[in-house]
Each structure stands twice: as C-alpha cells, then as structure tokens.
What we know:
It contains 3 helices and 5 strands, in the order ββαβααββ. It is of the alpha+beta class.
Amino acid sequence: MLRLLTIDEGVLDLDTFTGRTWEVAVAPAADARKEAQQDRANRKAEDQEKREGEHRERVLAVLKRKPHGDTARSLRDATGLNAANFSRAVGVLIQEGRAAECEIVKNGHTYEGYKPTGK
C-alpha cells in the first residue's frame, strides 16, 4: 500500500539546544499523487513564466536598437521568436507601457510596427 510520508525534524537552536522535533505524518497514496501533480503543474507554470519573461527581454533589447521602431516581421526575425511568442511578448510590453504601436514607412509603403517607449 502506497503512502505519502512527511517527516519534520524542526530546526535546532544551537544557543538553547531546543527546536528539534520529530513529527511524522502519513497520507494516502491518492494525496501523494495529487501533490506530485500539483508540484509538476507549478513547475510548468514557473518555467512558462520564465520563458515568457526571457521573450519579453529579447523583444525589448531589439526594440532598443531600433528607437524609431520597425515592422513586426523585422522585429520578430531579429528576436528569433515564432509569431505566437513574439505577439505575446510585444502585447505584454505594450500593456506595461514599455512598447507602443507605430507606423513604419519602408519603400514607400506604410506598415504597422512597434517602437520602444523609453520606460
């Protein structure tokens, strides 16, 4: 029979030589599975947030090299991100006020683009 075993030994205070405990808790296997699934989901969410933060920083770094802005395609190519990751990153940067939409004129044509705000 599977069980989740948790042991808390406490923390020893070297000045008073107290604080040391031995507390044991046993839970059913179903609880262990739920806890493991939740831990995996939490790690996955943390990893996703870290990746998205890195994507935002990549977009911002490219935007800073183009103070007057550039087209979404040019910026996306410069970051090396796919369309979905680029769109998500630039959308958050706009919400945060660190990027803004703008119009870019290239070869006599006007395109939608993005530029840094300086924030």
